[in-house]
Amino acid sequence: MRLEPKTAPSLIVTLLYPVAAILVTFAITALLVLAAGASPFSVFFLVWKGAAGSQFALLETLTRATPLIFTGLAVAVAFRAKLWNIGAEAQLYIGAVVTVVLGTGALPLPSFILIPVIMVAAMAAGALLLLGPAILKTRFGVDEVVTTLLLNFIVLLFVSMLLEGVLKDPMGMGWPQSSRVIAEAQLPRIVQGRRLHYGFVIAIVSAVIIWIIMKKTALGYEMRAVGHNPQAASFAGIPVNRVLMKTALLSGGIAALAGFSEVSGLKGNLTLDLSPGYGYTGIVVAMLAMLNPIGVVVSAIFVAGIFVGADAMSRTAGVPSYIADVMVATSLLTMVVALLFTRYRLRWK
Amino acid sequence: MSSPVLRLSGITKRFGPLVANDAISFDLARGEVVALLGENGAGKTTLMNILFGHYVADEGVVEAFGKALPPGDPHAALEAGIGMVHQHFTLADNMTVLENIALGTQKLNAWRLDRTGARERIEKMSFDFGLAVDPMATVGSLSVGERQRVEILKALYRNAKILILDEPTAVLTPVETDALFATLKLLVAQGLSIIFISHKLNEVMAVSDRVLVLRSGKLSGERVTAETNRSELAALMVGQEVEPPPVPPVAPGELQFVLNSVSTARRASGTALDRTTLSLRGGEITGLAGVSGNGQATLAALIAGTEVPTAGEIIIRGTAARDWSPRAALGAGIGRIPEDRHAVGTIGDMSVTENVIAERYRSPRFSRRGFLDWRAARKFAEQVIADYDVKCPSPEARIRLLSGGNMQKLILGRAFDEEPSVILANQPTRGLDVGAVSYVHRKLLEARGRGAAILLISEDLEEIMALSDRIIVMSKGHLSAASARGERTIAQLGELMAGHGVEAA
Predict the structure, then answer these.
(1) B214 three-state secondary structure
(2) A349–B70 CB contact, under 8 Å
(3) Are B419 and B450 in contact (CB under 8 A)?
(4) Nearest CA to CA, how far is A335 from chain B (Å)?
(5) Which of A321, B97, B191, B455 gets the most CB atoms within 10 Å of its CB?
(6) Does B411 lie at the interface with A, CB-CB under 8 angstroms?
């Protein structure tokens, strides 16, 4: 058994393989559903209904997709330049900390000034957080996978310290949570009485801006060149290290917006369970989207839909909602395999 | 001749609309060296990949020792006694020579390597065939020539009876090339058969018994080496007679570029420069001859801007440069042709358009306020493609898909676009076919004609002697005094290249 490169993959094949990947994902998860003693068809139907079967369900899915779009974009931007940012989780939390510090009354400003100020400050904090690992990488060759990954735990412990100390809500009955942000610092809801907030709109706008940066600007060109071949980029006069710094600032800044959006738009305060691993899921989202910023929006909604749908399904069908994790993980694996098959042909010999 | 050890019958391979091999048939006899000659893209490597089982032919049969080889099975090819030495080596740098050679020959479930047995066999083979190499050395510490010997030993260790060498001399110094040819003679005397792939006519003439010429996928001729000559083979290869380029006299102009007693940082690998002085005048080609690894790479990197001086000055048209970098070099009007067009000259996974603007994307011509003008970029790409006769499907094609010659033409187009006053041409024709070589030479002479100062770094002494107005030899990081065209003979240059008489200035 071996792989032979295809000379020219056709468009139909390129489109068909991802569809096949999804079907295979369903087939594999169907086996697990059967093992749990339920009917795969009714379970998948319930997941679909829970994710998109009603206005409520759909809005809930988009709400869940919002932080994933931010972290997915952050990862897509960094990975494009081959800067392996595994630390979107930490950058998200730093963004949330800044939002709480500035948004709980420290700045008595009207909403239309306060929210942009908080956004810029949150982005700056996230950017600086990733700048450290980027400098260590370019100066001393320290592997950024290790540094960004470990920073996640450091930052989470740091947040925990803040929540037990200076940021602790005096009215919180001893719980490790911050005070709520003031009304001026809150993002309004898009639909009255539903949870979907303007963070979603900011996420979509961010995706479009990132797409423009990658496609149309000199910076996007530099990032792609550095990602593909740093040696040739450097020879051609592209300042590789400076490009990696800019990439780090951009990536960290966007990831921090996820934290801002969750606090300002949804939760209202900071707790240690603000993110159930959105930073890590962002990697899956970006990979599923093949690092395309617009694709990130689609894959974030897909992943969020599975999570939201599975929650609803488990309430009625009794199949554990962990099936969502299995589906997302399986879809990533099948997608990677599908991508391989668009470029290679399998020979049995 | 007895029955052939290898027979190819009617091999055809298509890649989409391109016919890479068109009904090719030939035999290889025991103890024979057959040269496979052809331009880049003529289909030599494709044919060998079919033979070795990397590709599956659309039509045709490969027979080894009278038995048909199953298509697409390198393992069967190895079993049948076919060994291949690729152009790009397939060795693990951090392992020893012995481990590299024995790797894959022992059973996977064997607990440990039979080192003593393997070592004895390797030492005997290297003695028998003049393939001197220390079995215990790590491959990473070996020179390119030594690594090639390891590749050959690897094939012999697997009992190869037929050895395929893909462009074996492309990476070798002249001395190493001679040693390789001596080894080939010893191998043939032992009854091995060799297929020698090359596009260098003099090597083919020197080493082969028979020559097969490929042109655009077809077998355009078959000659017994003793009964042919270089110009006939060249004609078969390119379809026309090639002449050496005429070099019109040009009066040397102003000093364009000077290295004034420049030193570079000492590193673990590579030869550092120590107070090197070099001046380049307009309208003059300065040829830098020398065996590779004597500091040419550092000198080239310094001029290209990827290496910075630790002492001394870089003076461009009378002004000392500050903050030396690739961008500074480009800004000073230096056009650069790098030695390695795949790893350094181009970004393989980006398009032709994206590659041609790489040195100038920040200029007002291609960008405004940080936004790239893709229309202007595409227009420039189309212009280079047309002006430099580049064969490529479209400006959007990934540059990886282009042949070496077409890639080099794009690099020339990029480097020469704004008529640079100084040109660094580092091995500009290495690995190119005859047609592309003469094209590059013509372009260099054109640049000389309009007054550019050119430094031509090459290991091909004939190229240096044909083009250069003055020749400098580099040895162990030092430069010899310059000699005018025709002043030193090949033998004298060879002496200097070997390090005799290049003063430690």
Answers:
(1) strand
(2) yes
(3) yes
(4) 21
(5) B97
(6) no
Q: Which DSSP helix (H) or strand (E) runs through B319?
A: strand B319-320
B372/B302 same-domain check: yes
Ramachandran category for residue B495: left, alpha or beta (phi over 0 → left; psi -120 to 50 → alpha): alpha
Q: Write out the residue range of the structural domain in which residue B37 sits.
A: 6-238
Nearest CA in chain A to B75: A349
Show residues of chain B in contact with A231, CB under 8 Å. 343-344
pLDDT single digits (tens) A250-308:
999 999 999 999 999 999 999 999 999 999 999 999 998 889 999 999 999 999 999 99
Is there a contact between B305 and A237 if contact means CB atoms under 8 Å apart?
yes
* Domains of chain A with bracketed CATH: 38-318 (1.10.3470)
0.90 exceeded by pTM? no
Phi, psi of B179 (to 5 degrees): -65, -40
Identity of the residue in B56, B73, B370 whose CB atom sits nearest the CB atom of A218: B370
Q: Are the beta carbons of A237 and B358 separated by less than 8 Å?
A: yes
Q: What's the confidence (pLDDT) of residue B108? A: 56
DSSP-based three-state secondary structure for A4: strand
List, for residues A126-174, the tens digit of each pLDDT value.
999 999 999 999 999 999 999 999 999 999 999 999 999 899 988 888 8
Residue B35 is assigned to a structural domain of this protein: yes
Which residues in chain B show pLDDT less than 50? Answer: 1, 241, 504-505
Q: Which of A7, A235, A238 sits opposite B15 (nearest CB)?
A: A7
Residue B397 sits at the chain A interface (C-beta within 8 Å): no
- Tokens 């050895």 correspond to B163
Residue B54: what pLDDT?
A: 84
B111 residue type, one letter? W
Element spanning B197, H or E? strand B193-198
| Cβ-Cβ contacts under 8 Å, B359 against chain A | 236-237
User: Considering the domain boundaries, does residue B87 fall inside one?
Assistant: yes
Say which residue, A346 or A186, is predicted with more confidence: A186
Of chain A, the percentage scoring pLDDT greater than 70 comes to 96
